[in-house]
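so my prof wants the structure for this chain in the tokens format not the other one, which i didnt know existed until like an hour ago. anyway here's the sequence
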Amino acid sequence: MKTPGNIIYEITPLSDKDCFYIADRRKTAFTYPIHHHAEYELNFIENAPGVKRMVGDPTEVIGPYDLVLITGKELEHTWQQHQCSSGNIREITIQFSGDLFPEKLLRKNQFETIRHMFEAARSGISFPLPTIMKVYSLLDTLSNEQSGFTAVIQFMNLLHELSLCPDPKILSSSSFARTETTSDSRRIRKVQHYIATHYKEEIRLREIAGIAGMTPVSFSRFFKLHTGRILSDYIIDIRLGIAARLLADTHMNISGIVYECGFNNLSNFNRLFLKKKQCTPKLFRETYRKKKIIV
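here's what i got, hopefully its the right format
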């Protein structure tokens, strides 16, 4: 199926009558192109060090274990062979519809941690090794469960255990994933909205602090406490995410993208892009276009 902007859209095997679809595969190589789909996806990879993972705009070379949850419907992702030489790769893919967890259910106290995990996973999240080891036995046996009802209970337990992870890693920038940033703080939400609509302009700390009704020093501490990042890094990430989306989806030349996203010169943009995305803007665009086919 072809969608606007020639984005790859995968029609998954998930049936309307099933709670989830699971595939437990042994393979020697990764060949599937960059794609996205409407279903949520939990993807586990074992014994594939050297594989390059792309979820949204960042790339990362994985180790012996990798576990990623994606709930963003427009978030492109793929795993590329890169430097992996393993001949015995195991990949477990679980796909399920967001409709399995209606909003009223997720608002119940018992599902609060799962709701927060799903919200974060709109930008893709990866789990650290201790969490992977904690749920390994559930992943290992789930595909072999003969009772459909028991399998669903085990799947719910798997999601619950993952939602208790204290430090999942956010993979894609929110601006590339086209997701709204959320915060429990009204002041932070107000600032985030301002940045999202004024990223092309010069944004000064004093101006942002005034929007929050705080002094620059107090706001800097407040923002770092609530987001885990300093303001300048947050703004750079928003701009780079938008730049990456333009590189992937348009034919705009790179120098034009630089100024469209609020950067003041090409060399600074190239330096920051390479540092944050681990590749040059040109290579990022070539990688996405090389892999984009309709499946």
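also thought this was worth mentioning. Residues 1-7 have pLDDT under 50 and may be disordered.
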